[in-house]
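Something for you to look into today, if you have time. Just paste the record in under my message, thanks.
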Amino acid sequence: MGHALVWFRRDLRLADNPALKAALDAGLAPVPVYIHAPDEEAPWAPGAASHAWLHRSLLALDADLRARGSRLIIRQGDSLAEIEKLIAETKAEALHWNRLYEPASIARDTRIKQGLKSRGLHVESHNAALLVEPWTVQTGQGEPYRVFTPFWKNARQRLDATMPAGAPRRLPELPPMLAGLGVEDLRLEPQRPEPRWDAGFWEHWVPGEAGALELLDAFLDGAARGYKEQRNFPDRIATSKLSPHLHFGEISPRTIVARVLAQAWPAAVQPDIDHFLSELGWREFSHHLLFHFPHTAQENMNPRFREFRWARPDARLLAAWQRGRTGVPIVDAGMRELWHTGWMHNRTRMVVASFLTKNLRYHWKHGAQWFWDTLVDADLANNTQGWQWTAGTGADAAPYFRIFNPVAQAEKFDAAGKYVRRWVPELAKLPDAALSAPWEHADLLRRLAPDYPPKPIVDLKASREAALEAYSGPKTKPPAER
C-alpha cells in the first residue's frame, strides 16, 4: 500500500476530515503530519493562549490516532522543506490538506501546491472549516456580500442536514522508522520560570475532539432551548462555547449543523435554533469578508475611516483596560474573565470593545491584538470583523452612534451582579444598587472595596460625547479622489 501525507493544521479531528477521508478513499495509507511553523502566519502568528490550547489539542489528536493504530508525526520548520523530507522518507504518492482562509496561509499553501504539483505529486486541498466556500456565495451582480442578512439568506439555503463521515475505526500503521518531535518539544505551554498563567483555562476547557463533542451534546440537551434570549446574559451558561473547538477544527460546522437539523425541535424552540444557526452564519460571513477583503486584517473595511483621528494610546490606561482595572465593573469583569479562562462572553466582548474604541477612542487594532494573544478562540476572521463591527469601521458594522453604555449594559444583563461579583470579587460586598456604577457611591466603595479604583479611568458621559463628535465630524469623509 502506498502512502499519502495528510497535513493537519487547524483541523485537529478524525471525524468529518475530508483530507483524511480522501487519502483513505484513494487506497493510500495516511501519514498524519503536523508541521509547526507559526512564523508563516505572520503578521498574525498564533498568540500565547492559542499555543497553550494547541499543546493539549495535539496531544488529544495523537492519542486518538494511536487508539486507531497510527500516530501523529510532528515536525518543525519551513513547511515546504519538511513536507519534501517526508515525501522522500515515505515515498508518498499524494498530499492532502484542509484549506485555511487567512491571507498568509492562502499565499503559503498556493506556493506549496504549485511547487509540488510541478514535480508530479498529487496535491489536493479540501473544505473542512466552512459550511460554504467564500467564492460560492455572491450577490446577483457577482460581487461578494458586504451585509450579513442577504449573505445568510443565500448561504442558509445551502445547509446540508446529512451527517458527515465519522472517524475511521482503524488506520494503517506508520513505518516504524518514521520519526518526529514530541508535542513538548514545541514548547507551546508557558515555560519555567514563567508562571502558569494558563492554569485557570483548564478548569473550563477540555481541548480535543472528545471535548468538543461533549460540549455540543450539553448544548443540544440544555442551553439550546432559550438560546435566543439567554445568550445575552454573561452570568449563566447559555451559549455553546464551541468557538475554540471550531477554531482548531476539533469539530466541524457541518457536524454541528447536521446534529441541530436532525433533532426534532418543538415549535416554541425553533426561533432559538434559527438564531443559533445564524451565529454560525456570522462566523461564515467573517471568513467570507476576510477572504474577499484580505486587507481588513490590518486596515478599516470602510474607507471613510482612513483619515479618522484615533486618540494616541496612553500606556497606563491601555494596561488598565487589559488587566480589568478601568473602574467600570462590567468592563473589568469581562477582561478578567478573558485573562483567567482565555474566553469572554460575547455580550461583554461588545461592551469592552466599545469602551476601548469609543470611550477611550483607541484604534480597534489595539484591542484586536490583545484579544489575539489572550483568546483561546482567537480566529483572525472573527476577531477582525468583531472589532471592526464595534468600532463602526467594518462591513455591516454598528452605526457610529452606537456606543455601549457599560452601566446600562450591566443593569440590563447582570442585574443581580452575579457576573461582576464572580470576576471582580473585591466588589462582592457592594449592594446591587451600587454595583454597576460604584463611583456614584463613593463612601460605600471606599469602605467596602478600598482596593478597587475610586472612579473610571475615563468619564463615560464626556467620552461618549467626544466620540459622537469625532465619529460624526468631517474627519470620517473619504479622501478626495486623486
User: Anything to note?
Assistant: Residues 103 and 423 are 36 Å apart (CA to CA).
